[in-house]
Amino acid sequence: MLLGCIGDDFTGSSDLGNTLVKGGMRVVQYCGIPDAPADPAVAAGIVALKTRSVAPEEAVAQSLRALDWLRAQGCRQILFKYCSTFDSTPRGNIGPVAEALADALGAGAVIFCPAFPATGRTVYQGHLFVGDRLLSESGMEAHPLTPMTDPDLRRCLAAQSRRGIGHVPAATVWAGAPAIRARLAEEARAGRPFAIADAIRDEDLVALGMAAEDMPLITGGSGIALGLPANFRRRGLLAGQPAGWRGQAGRAAVLSGSCSRATRGQVAQHVARGEPRLEIDPEAVIAGQVTPRAAADWALAQPGLPLVYSSADPQAVRAVQDRHGSDLVAHRLEAFFAETARLLVAGGVTRLITAGGETSGAVVEGLAPGALEIGPEIAPGVPAMRAGDRLVLALKSGNFGAPDFFAAAAAVLAGETVAA
Ligand SMILES: Nc1ncnc2c1ncn2[C@@H]1O[C@H](COP(=O)(O)OP(=O)(O)OP(=O)(O)O)[C@@H](O)[C@H]1O
Ligand SMILES: O=C(O)[C@@H](O)C(=O)CO
């Protein structure tokens, strides 16, 4: 294994896998820390954790265990993947995890760059933008777990880290890898080893990756991996391309617990196409009036692409959260979707599509597939994945995908090529 990656959530880890596969690496995503050695043919291994919003101490402990396993596989470089919207709280977990990894690896200067231009996330003057809005005006300021109210990533990181915070401005990034390296060294000498790097185009991320070639640790969104496969290729450590994707025939189904604007648009499109759908009322789940068994039986009896969804608009979400508390609602719905997924797979579904980071995490933990082989891209940030001989998956982050995402995912999972 050349590159060892630690992801702070499951869908975000598959987003990173997507970037690395497009760069020509064979990539496997491990759901949790494996207890056996990796297949030696894997070029990049991603240990997917669910550490984005747990206590910092827990996130650090799990990340260090993941690091130990990755180092035992011979990795030459470690990448810590977090969200392209820098999802964190004033306590963490980006700062504390990065600090612990930097200490363990003896890393000096460390790049921090969540930019993902293909999905509108760019960093300029140390500030994070989503499209043409600052992060703090993008909707992320109202996130239920990790509200992002400060778009200045230098201040965000300073609040959750004991290291000095530096900056690599866009003009330096545009000057190329040697200039970036010089700036990082200068920042480290001045006591600012954790450097927020500007990046507004893919080329900027490639230049940052090239500059980080000899660094033991690099951190960012999936975009920060854009330049890394070429580093290994230049050194003769990586050759060829991963084996072609083998699609999976058989029944498909979609489970959506994401309430993001993008997902609600995808649900609306699915409904408009006349595809079968079953809306799940959280009240009915909490009262035990709707069961996973009933939802799975309904889906298994449908032709086409059945969708089971609780996706709802913000007012409806708030109303049920006000009645029951957001933790209880989330917990019940996630358990509902995890059990429905298990029943669907047991009932013969071979292509499963899930929407929402937490929802997908619960489903994957429920299915316990161990390792997921990353396949081709369905949409920016979302790859097809194989989980063993009979099951293929697509795990969609809430904000990703075009309105026809569900149909596109079912087609790619079946091995069909779809127009980009
Ligand atoms: N109708 C609903 N009312 C209240 N909560 C809901 C409802 N439907 C889903 N939820 C809960 O809302 C949360 C949605 O989070 P999830 O991470 O799955 O989606 P997301 O936030 O859109 O995705 P991402 O984290 O990838 O951006 C889950 O905990 C889910 O159980
Ligand atoms: O970086 C992103 O935006 C995604 O991979 C993700 O982590 C969403 O939760």
TrEMBL record:
- Give the enzyme's EC designation: 2.7.1.217
What the entry lists under Gene3D superfamilies is as follows: Four-carbon acid sugar kinase, nucleotide binding domain (3.40.980.20), Putative sugar-binding, N-terminal domain (3.40.50.10840)
In terms of superkingdom, the source organism counts as Bacteria
UniProtKB keywords: ATP-binding, Carbohydrate metabolism, Kinase, Nucleotide-binding, Transferase
What catalytic activity does the UniProt entry give for this protein?
Answer: 3-dehydro-L-erythronate + ATP = 3-dehydro-4-O-phospho-L-erythronate + ADP + H(+); 3-dehydro-D-erythronate + ATP = 3-dehydro-4-O-phospho-D-erythronate + ADP + H(+)
Q: Name one Pfam family in it.
A: NBD_C
Q: Which SUPFAM superfamilies match?
A: YgbK-like (SSF142764)
Q: Which InterPro entries match?
A: 4-carb_acid_sugar_kinase_N, 4-carb_acid_sugar_kinase_N_sf, NBD_C, NBD_C_sf, OtnK
> Which molecular function GO terms apply here?
kinase activity
Q: What class of enzyme is it?
A: transferase
Q: Which residue range or ranges hold the Four-carbon acid sugar kinase nucleotide binding domain? A: 253-406
* Keyword hit for Kinase: yes
Q: Where is the Four-carbon acid sugar kinase N-terminal domain?
A: 3-227
Q: Which NCBIfam families match?
A: OxoTetrKin
Which family does this protein fall into? Belongs to the four-carbon acid sugar kinase family.
Q: What does this protein do, in the record's words? A: Catalyzes the ATP-dependent phosphorylation of 3-oxo-tetronate to 3-oxo-tetronate 4-phosphate.
This protein is called: 3-oxo-tetronate kinase
